[in-house]
Design goal:
Blueprint: E1 2-3, H1 7-23, E2 30-33, H2 35-39, E3 43-47, H3 56-60, H4 63-80, E4 85-88, H5 91-103, E5 108-111, H6 123-130, E6 133-136, H7 142-146, E7 152-154, H8 169-175, E8 184-188, H9 193-214, E9 217-222, H10 228-235, E10 244-246, H11 249-255, E11 258-262, H12 265-272, E12 277-281, H13 285-294, H14 302-307, E13 314-316, H15 322-333, H16 336-352, H17 358-370
Parallel strand pairs: 1-4, 2-3, 4-5, 5-6, 6-7, 8-9, 8-11, 9-10, 11-12, 12-13
Helix pairs in contact: 1-17, 4-5, 5-6, 8-11, 9-10, 9-15
Length: 371
């Protein structure tokens, strides 16, 4: 049984399932799935699109659906009694399933750790009680679990296997009706509908200004968990024309000079493609107020957290404005030395993420636990 909670978890879960099937095509795998896991052919108990939340306040509005999913999965654990439960990120939900599985004698493998290094560090104590094995994707996470006596392995980051382009810049831009001779900015507003609602309007206002000031052009990358209609509705009101790319993220990133990315997996994808970026993130006022009380990190972007310094600019909450997006973007686009320094730092971040093959390593761990 495998449970994911958002687009990035579905992506990594799908590659893990592919690795599992390569080892044993007769496996029966079921659980919570998005488009990626569905393509791998697992039995879907619940659709990940219905689970996707964002923060404390946003998640509260989805509690009925979350409770429905929890009851279905609890029933599946009891009736199907899988040989292994694989949990991918999504800690508020998944740790409850881990407790259920532990009580039922079902082994638990947790892939992609909760961000205990950022907030609620005491969750490592619960993990020590309910999780049999942790497979972490950042090297600095290992001692956090070792100190609690948790069996933990650093498997490298799964994006190292994925973040590669297959098309030249000119072909990609031409495909979307863009001019290869113009500076191009990719817009990645988030993988959740609420994120898009917060981020995309100021991004499009900034795009309109930069189109007039620098003759820049833009392309928007749609996350699979965001309905196309939501993007179309916002883009129709924009003064600037922006094509939408689907399922072509890495070629688009490769073709762009700069990326505007909502904080999350997209920032790591952009870093691995060695593209300068401006990170943005807005939440409801209540979620943000609670986060300020609880979160202990000085940066929100994983790129800056891994680097231990501010490699790329972050615009948070009230700073997510067209004025500030334009200012940060112009600084990068018009200063070759600054751009060069950013790319050099991104290369160092990439080196810290280990080597390709994360899915195969996790699959090996999974089979050792099953046997």
């Amino acid at each position: 049984m495998i449970v994911v909670g958002e687009a990035s978890g579905d992506l990594h879960g799908a590659h893990l399932v592919k690795a599992l099937y390569r080892r044993d095509p007769t496996l029966e795998i079921f659980g919570v799935a998005g488009d990626g896991l569905k393509r791998e052919g697992i039995k879907v108990i619940f659709d990940v699109d219905r689970l996707t939340g964002m923060g404390f306040a946003e998640l509260a509005g989805n509690l009925k659906t979350i409770w429905q999913a929890y009851r279905l999965l609890r029933k599946a654990l009891r009736e199907e009694r899988p040989n292994l439960l694989i949990l991918v990120d999504f800690p508020e939900f998944n740790l409850r399933l881990a407790r259920l599985a532990k009580k039922s004698g079902i082994p638990v493998l947790y892939y992609i750790s909760p961000q205990v290094w950022a907030w609620r560090k005491r969750r490592t104590q619960k993990i020590a009680r309910w999780v049999d094995r942790m497979a972490v994707v950042f090297p600095f996470e290992v001692p956090l679990y070792q100190n609690e006596g948790v069996a933990v392995s650093f498997v490298g980051h799964p994006l190292l296997d994925l973040a590669h382009s297959s098309e030249p810049r000119e072909r990609t831009l031409t495909q979307y009706g863009l001019d290869p001779s113009r500076q191009t900015i990719a817009i990645l507003p988030g993988s959740r509908s609420r994120e898009v609602a917060y981020h995309l309007p100021p991004m499009l206002e900034a795009a309109d200004r930069l189109e007039r000031q620098l003759e820049a052009q833009f392309i928007l990358v749609r996350a699979t968990t965001v309905e196309r209609g939501i993007l179309d509705g916002i883009l129709e009101k924009a003064a600037v024309k922006v094509p939408i790319a689907e399922g072509n993220t890495y070629n688009v990133l490769h073709a762009c000079d700069l990326v505007w990315a909502a904080s999350g997996t997209a920032t790591l994808e952009t870093a691995l493609m060695l593209r300068p970026m401006v990170i943005v993130y807005r939440l409801s006022w209540l979620t943000y107020a609670l986060a300020r009380l609880l979160v202990r990190v000085s940066h929100i972007g994983m790129v800056n957290i891994i680097a231990g310094e501010s490699v790329v600019p972050e615009l948070i909450q009230s700073d997510v404005t067209a004025d500030k997006i334009v200012a940060e973007s112009r600084a990068i686009l018009q200063d070759p030395e600054l751009r060069k320094r950013i790319v050099s730092k991104l290369s160092q971040v990439r080196e810290k993420l280990g080597s390709p093959g994360a899915s195969e390593r996790v699959a090996e761990i999974a089979f050792s636990m099953i046997s």
